[in-house]
Amino acid sequence: MWGASFYERASRLFQQYPSLSKLLVVATVSGGGLAAFHEGRPFQSRTAYADAAQPEGESKKKKVVVLGTGWAGVSFLKNLKSSSYDVEVVSPHNYFLFTPLLPSITCGTVEARSIVEPIRCITKKKGLDVQFREAACYKIDPQNKKVYCRTTQDNNPCGKNEFSVDYDYLIIAMGAKANTFNTPGVEQHAHFLKGVEDALKIRQSVINCFERANLPCTSQEERKKILHFVVVGGGPAGVEFAAELHDFVVEDLAKLYPAVKDDVSITIIEAGDHILNMFDSRITKFAEEKFTRDGIEVKTGSQVVKVTDKEISTKERTGHVSSMPYGMCLWATGIGARPEIIEFMKQIGQGNRRVLATDEWLRVEGCNGVFALGDCATINQRRVMEDISHIFSKADTDKSGTLSLEGFHEVIDDLMERYPQLELHLKSKQMSSIHELLKNSSGKYSSTEVDIETFKSALSQADTQMKNLPATAQVAAQQGAYLANCFNRMEECEKYPEGPLRFRGEGRHRFHPFRYKHFGMFAPLGGEQTAAHLPGDWVSIGYSTQWLWYSVYVSKLVSWRTRVLVVSDWGRRFIFGRDSSRI
Amino acid sequence: MWGASFYERASRLFQQYPSLSKLLVVATVSGGGLAAFHEGRPFQSRTAYADAAQPEGESKKKKVVVLGTGWAGVSFLKNLKSSSYDVEVVSPHNYFLFTPLLPSITCGTVEARSIVEPIRCITKKKGLDVQFREAACYKIDPQNKKVYCRTTQDNNPCGKNEFSVDYDYLIIAMGAKANTFNTPGVEQHAHFLKGVEDALKIRQSVINCFERANLPCTSQEERKKILHFVVVGGGPAGVEFAAELHDFVVEDLAKLYPAVKDDVSITIIEAGDHILNMFDSRITKFAEEKFTRDGIEVKTGSQVVKVTDKEISTKERTGHVSSMPYGMCLWATGIGARPEIIEFMKQIGQGNRRVLATDEWLRVEGCNGVFALGDCATINQRRVMEDISHIFSKADTDKSGTLSLEGFHEVIDDLMERYPQLELHLKSKQMSSIHELLKNSSGKYSSTEVDIETFKSALSQADTQMKNLPATAQVAAQQGAYLANCFNRMEECEKYPEGPLRFRGEGRHRFHPFRYKHFGMFAPLGGEQTAAHLPGDWVSIGYSTQWLWYSVYVSKLVSWRTRVLVVSDWGRRFIFGRDSSRI
Known about the structure:
The structure is a homodimer.
Chain A: H1 6-13, E1 62-67, H2 71-79, E2 85-91, E3 95-97, H3 102-106, E4 116-118, H4 119-126, E5 130-134, E6 136-141, E7 146-150, E8 162-166, E9 169-172, E10 177-178, H5 186-189, H6 196-213, H7 220-226, E11 228-232, H8 236-256, E12 265-269, H9 281-294, E13 296-299, E14 302-307, E15 311-316, E16 321-325, E17 328-331, E18 335-336, H10 339-347, E19 356-358, E20 370-372, E21 377-379, H11 388-395, E22 402-404, H12 409-418, H13 421-428, H14 434-442, E23 449-451, H15 452-459, H16 473-488, H17 490-495, E24 521-526, E25 529-534, E26 538-542, H18 543-556, H19 560-576
Helix pairs in contact in A: 2-16, 6-7, 14-15
């Protein structure tokens, strides 16, 4: 699979498009990019599901409650086809937000309305029975299968503010909040970039700084302070904001604020050694060099320890603490669990974890009928070593106490599916099959028999290959589609389970476990240049990649309305520039 | 002039366009509308200026300070051509807002960004030396020719918050605020519709009501309350909002909120006998009938006496007071003076007036070099009877004590220009000239001599024809253009005064006094129907007038950017409907 040709890979990249997108064929063949747009179905091949929820064959429809309308929740709703559920969606936002374009809103490259789509419009098209409630869930009661919700409107005096909803299946897709690492002053003085409101506030704040700097009562020294924009966190969001801001200043604001344009400075503070450290080092290097040319200061190895209304204090690796004055600060260092999720984790005995854990079928461990996906959860991958003796005895069909490598064939596919770390382990050892691994371990190349100790020692290193999935839109969307597909085929798979063998029990798992397919990552760097890191260590940087980025993002947008609006926003920006009105 | 053909009138209607608009020729010939778009110059023919500010022939540039960036201020800036001034603009908004489309923002027919244009973009194009400061003027000191300003940003700790600006000429164009008539609870609970922020808040509030009504904890009875939208004031703004809201509900929200759509109600409360009472009675009747058909309740003769968080109390003419529950209330009853203007009026001895008074040259009475225009001021038209003996003695060239009607010819044009109420008075008497009036009064049709008493009695009724100008964008824009034209020709008119005779002094006034030309009014009534009241009592109602409205408003927009955006917004609305995301 990993050896597939580039064209196959590029093609897989653009799966999961809305039904009409086959009409949009934009092929951008360039120094490094080809984007072929076609209608793709949500990937189903190796995905699967397990037996958390027991369909009891009742005629009454099961009630599915979805908490959240981000990538995970909406992907679930868009892919749910079965009409055998009553769906109720609860979210504080009555729209889906296309988060990858959020940094573009901060400087007006794209308008906020162009990248949101009302949930009701999305579900109406599906023709399913979906109710939406604009409210925030503040408590989950898994014993009584109930969620407690509260309206987010604080100024409407009519009616009650709270209600509860019963569920048969609960899908927790509430996302995460910005992580301040308890740094003092961040909540009060820094901006975050999680929602539309954040982005609009940032946009206003940038213009505020320019207007403020332009007042006659502002001294030259103060002007430099006010126009110092600081981004904390060198991940994709922070880097993209810095790039957008730089473009906005150079392309638009410099002409309108000629008196203050030379006082603008942008600094990115990153605790690690490099910005964009989840990307390939070629991209990191390119980005750092480009930013240096653009005059954006990249301050690595530096940790923010305190933010006040006027200054940001940083601590270097040497222990030296220094302060810098600033006008606006964006905090983009990562995500943390939301308070309601932390509360729920305490209830279900996960209080000592940092993030809600699910199994490979996205089921919350210890709760019947509760699923969690997207940024609010991580998959707790089963260790091979936990089950090693059960695996051995399943494979040892003749119960001889030793494993014949020929007989082992029967369980090998199930083993590889159930424990995906094995595949990575083999890859890291540059081996083609598990037989090779076992043969190597047994020390006797001619032997075809393996005992339990040899088996254990052969697989003992595999679990070190386990990795958590990144908290990205891509992961959340795939999880939502996977779960919807499981719900669609619940009855069918009940009769004919398609998952791997149960090594600890009898029979097979009902569904294939969730498996993430990485289709690559983009990092827009400003000045019409973007870097892309695609699977197979394929890297593309430059103007052509920007067009690939445009194409991919347009095709990924949730509706034709948003596609048309985003494209016309880009056109407007090319012709008229970005708007600098402070509204 | 009033007898001019319809085509001349329609043509005058579309004067004062930005330079490029000649390219846009949209002719809409219909049941009642023809719109011919052409490039028109700001009207100059009968406008003039007086001798408030003495150009002293200095080489140093005079400093002009403009307070406000609404219709009046921006019209002044756009029409100022002379480079002999240093211009500094102070306004809390760094953009110009095209207010006639403000009601369209409240329901998302047009986006807010589409109808604003940054002031810096407007002045940059002119190539003049214009500084913009985003701040609010809180005090004017006419003795020392200084204005005191303060930043409107409350959360930026850097630098000082206040500064002062010296001026040689001050142009007050700060607009007005909504008038609550001190009705209790209005400030706290009602929405206004003066700025972009107001319109965006209303948009969010409408969606809030629908989401709130859609919660399971909201009873049927509460739902009806929450979805009761009340508009106080039956003027164009209130009526247009009610129409927009009705369209939004019927065309878009009814599909997305099917469970609650039948609980929506809209009420317009008007203290007078009819809504749109400044329009022709045919329009009023049409609007009231259309609203009744649409299910919008029009409650006339009813005055709001109190607003609480849940209820609006109204008082009928009978004295009966009743209350109605509501979900959202728009207060659109008219305008009042801003506190800074009231403070300034007290300083200059106008404390007993309700609104700042200027003379016919837009000069603030009693202040040297201070002008006021737009909604913040009214023109205090000079009365004929105040000057009647001076007029008589000017006209009585041979100082005989009687006026020869032949000799009177010399002053008649000046008289008509200085006192425009005379023209209205003649019109109301259906007379063609002032000679006829004097002859009638003298009682002797054959006589050609008039003594002072006859002269007085002939003109005594003329002053009853004086009317204040309406507080509209049209008036403000014409005043701005007029004043800019005066500033452009300051030196020229100093040497060769072009205004009317000074009846109380020697020589002529430097400029013609300001004279308003009414080009008609639109009242959009929803459902793609608009009513137009054009000069000469010409009325047009219906679908065709909607297209006239589209055409006129597009052509009047301040820049090509906003034109393109508004047209694409309308297109988007036709294709995709209005967005109901609560952002």
